Amino acid sequence: MKIKSKHARKTLSVLAVALVGAVGSWSAVATPLLGSDLATFTVLGGSTVTNIPTSSVVGNVGVWSSGGANAITGFNSSPGVAVSDPQVTAGLVHAGTTTGTPNAMTAQSELTTAIINLGSLGPGTLLGSDLVGLILFPGVYTVPAGTTNLSGALTLDGQGNANAAWVFQMASTLITSPNAVVNMINTGAGAGLYWNVGSSATIDTNTTFLGNVLALESITMNTTATDLCGRVLAKTGAVTLDQNDLSRACSGDLTGSNGLSGGLDVITTPGGLTQVVFLPNVPVNGGGTVPEPATLALLGIGITGLGYARRRRQG
Fold first, then answer.
1. What secondary structure, in 3-state letters, does the chain show?
2. Do 284 and 4 touch, CB atoms closer than 8 A?
3. What is the largest CA-CA distance in the chain?
4. Neighbours of 244 (CB within 10 A)
């Protein structure tokens, strides 16, 4: 916005300082999109988890449903107790755990909230059903159902923003072809990638996938498919694994991104209003101090109000 009036510029400066100073008393609470228990799970099912060994999972593996069997096969498991398994590092296997921190029941509750919050971002830009060959900048995208949603390679370009985030609103299913690839470039430690799937997801044979898959129903990872920077989280159905490698911890330029679960914050005001916001743009190689999301929200409200006041004076 270009501000021509000297009085308007002075007023805006005063308002910005006042708003930044008010954040402490306004006390909006910003939290990550994935809750603290949910973020520890790399694999979470809503009915069962089935694994054909040998898979490799970095992070917790779990299942929970009210009144369900909460069965896990292909990993060591014990009903209601978190146990270790040689296929699982930096985590345990949770077959219906309801106590302790973290536990599968709380993680499932947080998954419900995360799916709702992703949906609140709206449809964004409508794409074709097959993402092959696209180079996409951070944002929100809707992808309709198709025989495949990725028949080759997709590139996600963060444009130098360490907090870059992509949200794919999958209208019903998420399906890849064999040997499909998701590439991510020019981003860093705060990045986020979310696939909000309206029904079920199938990551086909030998696919190199990235990101957090949040599916309302089931998720199937076919033979040797990988997701080395993300999670597979199913709300009501099963997660099926077949000699897969999965990790919520990233490497390289994505070090510290905790499985691409950054990029978005959930802001809750003292009045209980909730809004999902993109994190500030921060250079991949670092930069200056960046305002907190709550500060940015207040500043945006102030700028909007100033613009309204100017129009009234000019009218």
1. CCCCCHHHHHHHHHHHHHHHHHHHHHCCEEEECCCCCHHHEEEEECCEEEEECCCEEECEEEECCCCCCCEEECCCCECCEEECCCCEECCCEEECCCCCCCCHHHHHHHHHHHHHHHHCCCCCEECCCCCCCCEECCEEEEECCCCCCECCEEEEEEEEECCCEEEEEECCCEEECCCCEEEEEEECCCCEEEEEECCCEEECCCCEEEEEEEECCCEEECCCCEEEEEEEEECCCCEEEECCEEECCCCHHHCCCCCCECCEEEEECCCCCEEEEECCCCECCCCCCCCCHHHHHHHHHHHHHHHHHHHHHHC
2. no
3. 72
4. 24
* Beta-carbon count within 10 A of 254 CB: 24
Residues 149, 269: Cα–Cα separation, whole Å? 37
Residue 286: pLDDT band (50, 70, 90) is low
**Residues 6+ away with beta carbon under 8 Å from 311:** none
pTM reported for the whole predicted model = 0.84
244-267 residue pLDDT tens: 999 998 877 777 788 899 999 999
Confidence of residue 151 (pLDDT cuts 50, 70, 90): very high
Instruction: Say how far apart CA 51 and CA 61 lie, in whole Å.
Output: 11
Q: Which amino acid is at 142?
A: T
Helix axes 293-314, 6-26, angle to 10 degrees: 140
Confidence of residue 43 (pLDDT cuts 50, 70, 90): very high
List, for residues 119-146, the tens digit of each pLDDT value. Answer: 999 999 999 999 999 999 999 999 999 9
CB-based contact 146:175 (threshold 8 Å): yes
By DSSP bridging, strand 165-170 and strand 192-197 are parallel
| Buried-state track 107-138, b at ≥16 Cβ within 10 A, e below 16 | bbebbeebbebbeebeeeeeeebbbbeeeeeb
